[in-house]
Structure to design on (625 residues):
């Protein structure tokens, strides 16, 4: 850094509340749809309409290359009343002696009934209070103030909000059905036990929505909404022993939710007709014996948070419907594990799988069929991270049509041969930024890899998908070396250190062998880390590390700028020049580039040097460094 100077010689919401125990049940009898009399419940108990049977894969099957082992068992009907559109007209109008008696209601009773119609909330402590509140069409919000034990099965036709306040609702294997199109119900902060396969607030009506927040559930099934939507918020912990944790239309794990499904039945943990979404920041954990997630009609699976599917005996994710898709979005994570079965971990029939930039996919299986199967496209985008492992068969495959595969890995690819996937070291490693596209025709080791194009000559020459039982890309690649770390110039005025290093590596910044700052390299290989200001001449060491490998670089802190240098007036008789400048800097006096005097500026910023006499008009320059 030089500093030169030269001279020529010279709002608020109001809610009413009601505790049902203070009002007689008959106060609401004038509303025909509000209460289902005991006689009506008994008369409908013989009717039945079972849940639609859906095919499941037999965990005991021993198929090698076919899908013909998909079974189609019928469900048992465990409901006493069935809220379907077909029988709703029979259940809603209630004619009984109780209704006939309304003509003799006294004026006092009529006034009480009219007042009751303005009630929106109910605080309940007993079973009868709870049932009455559910059946009363005028009550929207129900607050539990005690544990409740259900004693009979019935249907309701209006929107309800259940606030459990941490209490337990024992269903005793009875059911409550939602028997109207478009009902919206909310269930919050409650423990549901002894659930029947037609679970609490189940429905076969169209466009029914049930929102769950902070709910625990145990029993035979958690959610059954044949044509509806379940939104899960907060913390959900649900076990099911006979049927699904969820069966219905859409299942949406809302932002920030934490959902744990455990299913000990031999069928499916999740059956969705139209799709499953895990939103940003949400976590879905599914443990099952049977299929983890089965999407039956319009496969649309969107993972934006984190999802983990572990099936101990069957497929993790199964979508046997054409033209579906599953997308693992930016920074999302999906782990799918299948054990015992010969089948795949993930199958999208004639469909597509996309793993986005920054997303992570781990899939593993133990069968002769490939771990992942698609019938249209399998895309691992630039910046994605993936590890696909099969202990007996190929990692990637196609079903039921040939599939195109597109891979772009910033860190290259590692592959392991079929039968050798449990070793640490890969069979082949392809380093550097790798791109490849190819097509696959089936899901066994006999598959043909065709139309292969890659920027890596070794990969182009050697890769054959049918022989690869494990493939790793992105952050799962076992690195042999990492990119050389660089560090840009740092001055005594800087409060950041910048440079380049291995993408996603950890960065430590040292001064005198002590860490003064730490950070992470971004996915493009750049870093920018804040540091305290350092004095001129300080040596800064930057070290990047990842997967046990390190690379470092260093720089010496320079001065950002010098104090302006001055020089005194010079005449033809001057032999001593004086001036000011950067304290302790070197100072040179030059004429036409020739040094005529030099020295050091004092700590007080002043200097004084002897020079020879100069002719009139000579330019004398003082330069501090």
């Amino acid at each position: 850094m030089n500093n030169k100077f030269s001279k020529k010689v010279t709002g608020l919401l109001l809610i009413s509340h009601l505790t049902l125990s203070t009002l007689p049940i008959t106060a609401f009898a004038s509303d025909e749809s509000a209460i289902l009399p005991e006689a009506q419940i008994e008369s409908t108990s013989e009717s039945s309409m079972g849940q639609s049977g859906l095919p499941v894969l037999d965990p005991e099957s021993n198929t090698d290359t076919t899908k013909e082992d998909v079974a189609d068992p019928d469900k048992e009907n465990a409901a006493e009343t069935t809220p379907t559109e077909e029988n709703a007209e029979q259940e809603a109008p209630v004619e009984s002696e109780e209704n006939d008696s309304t003509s003799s209601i006294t004026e006092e009773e009529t006034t009480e009934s009219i007042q009751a119609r303005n009630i929106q909330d109910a605080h309940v402590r007993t079973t009868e209070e709870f049932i009455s509140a559910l059946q009363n069409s005028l009550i929207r919000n129900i607050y539990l103030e005690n544990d409740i034990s259900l004693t009979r099965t019935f249907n309701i036709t209006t929107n309800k909000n259940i606030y459990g306040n941490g209490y337990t609702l024992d269903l005793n294997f009875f059911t409550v059905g939602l028997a109207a199109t478009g009902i919206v119900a909310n269930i919050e902060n409650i423990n549901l036990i002894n659930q029947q396969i037609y679970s609490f607030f189940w429905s076969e009506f169209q466009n029914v929505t049930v929102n769950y927040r902070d709910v625990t559930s145990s029993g035979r099934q958690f959610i059954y909404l044949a044509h509806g939507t379940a939104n899960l918020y907060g913390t959900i912990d649900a076990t099911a022993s006979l049927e699904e944790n969820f069966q219905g239309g859409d299942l949406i794990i809302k932002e920030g939710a934490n959902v744990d499904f455990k299913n000990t039945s031999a069928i499916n943990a999740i059956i969705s007709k139209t799709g499953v979404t895990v939103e940003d920041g949400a976590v879905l954990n599914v443990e099952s014996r049977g299929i983890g997630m089965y999407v039956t009609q319009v496969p649309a699976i969107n993972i934006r948070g984190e999802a983990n599917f572990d099936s101990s005996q069957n497929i993790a994710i199964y979508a046997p419907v054409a033209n579906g898709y599953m997308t693992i979005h930016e920074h999302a994570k999906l782990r799918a594990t299948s054990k015992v079965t010969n089948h795949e971990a993930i199958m999208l029939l004639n469909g597509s799988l996309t793993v986005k930039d920054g997303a992570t996919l781990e899939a593993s299986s133990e069968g002769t069929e490939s771990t992942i199967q698609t019938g249209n496209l399998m895309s691992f985008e630039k910046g994605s991270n993936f590890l696909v492992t099969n202990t007996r068969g190929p990692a990637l495959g196609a079903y039921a049509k040939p599939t195109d595969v597109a891979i772009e890995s910033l860190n290259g690819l590692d592959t392991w041969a079929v039968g050798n996937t449990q070793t640490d070291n890969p069979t082949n490693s392809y380093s550097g930024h790798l791109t490849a596209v190819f097509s696959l025709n089936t899901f066994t080791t006999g598959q043909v890899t065709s139309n292969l194009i890659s920027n890596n000559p070794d990969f182009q020459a050697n890769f054959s998908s049918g022989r690869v039982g494990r493939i790793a890309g992105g952050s799962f690649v076992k690195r042999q070396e990492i990119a050389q770390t660089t560090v840009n110039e740092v001055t005594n005025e800087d409060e950041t250190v910048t440079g380049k290093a291995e993408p996603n590596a950890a960065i430590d910044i040292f001064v005198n062998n002590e860490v003064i700052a730490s950070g992470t390299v971004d996915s493009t290989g750049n870093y920018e880390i804040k540091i305290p200001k350092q004095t001129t001449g300080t040596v800064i060491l930057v070290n990047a590390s990842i997967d046990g490998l390190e690379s470092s670089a260093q720089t010496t802190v320079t001065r950002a700028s010098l104090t302006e240098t001055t020089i005194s007036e010079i005449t033809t008789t001057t032999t001593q020049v004086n001036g000011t400048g950067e304290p302790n800097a070197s100072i040179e006096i030059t004429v036409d580039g020739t040094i005529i005097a030099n020295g050091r500026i004092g700590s007080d910023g002043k200097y004084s040097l002897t020079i020879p006499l100069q002719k009139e008009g000579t330019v004398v320059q003082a330069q501090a460094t």
Notes: The CA atoms of residues 255 and 372 lie 27 Å apart.
